[in-house]
Amino acid sequence: MNSEKLLKTIIDALEDIKAYDIDVIDVSKITSLFEYMIIASADSTRQTKSLASNVQEKVKAAGGEIYGVEGEQTGEWMLVDLGDAIVHIMLPAVREHYNLKALWSEKK
Fold first, then answer.
1. How far apart are alpha carbons 1 and 19 in whole angstroms?
2. Domains by residue range for the chain, with CATH
3. Residue 57's closest CA among 108, 10, 105, 104?
4. I want to staple 85 with a disulfide (CB 3.0 to 4.6 A). Which of 33, 36, 56, 65 is the partner?
5. Residues with Cβ < 8 Å from 84, sequence gap 6 or more?
6. How far apart are the C-alpha atoms of 108 and 27, rounded to whole Å?
7. DSSP-assigned letter for residue 99
8. What is the pTM of this model?
9. Residue 40: beta bridge partners?
10. Does residue 42 contact residue 15 with C-beta atoms inside 8 Å?
């Protein structure tokens, strides 16, 4: 699955279940581990888990592969590893605390 199709599938899956503040960060110049980091917010641990599950279902249905999922126990921060893209689904307080967007965005 090419990166463009993967990103569209991920964004659609997140929007299906009302994720918000969705950021797509191209990290290909920073790391060779993956190309994109997608960060999204959710209102509850139930929603983070549903979002992570929906992303996995949609990517798999589109022919993509799921390499790993982390965070199911607490649900405050779910991570879905899709190879070329890593998806972080976080509660707002957790997202603000770790500030991944600032950490991974390229310095201008």
1. 23
2. 3-104 (3.30.460.10)
3. 10
4. 36
5. 3, 6, 34, 35, 36
6. 13
7. -
8. 0.93
9. 89
10. no
13-37 pLDDT, tens digit each = 999 999 999 999 999 999 999 999 9
Q: Summarize pLDDT for 47-79 with one digit per residue, the tens.
A: 999 999 999 999 999 999 999 999 999 999 999
- Torsional class of 91: left (φ above 0), alpha (ψ -120 to 50), beta (otherwise): beta
Contact indicator for 14, 51 with CB cutoff of 8 Å: yes
pLDDT digits (tens, 9 = 90+) for 31-52: 999 999 999 999 999 999 999 9
The pair phi, psi for residue 30, each rounded to 5°, is -100, -35
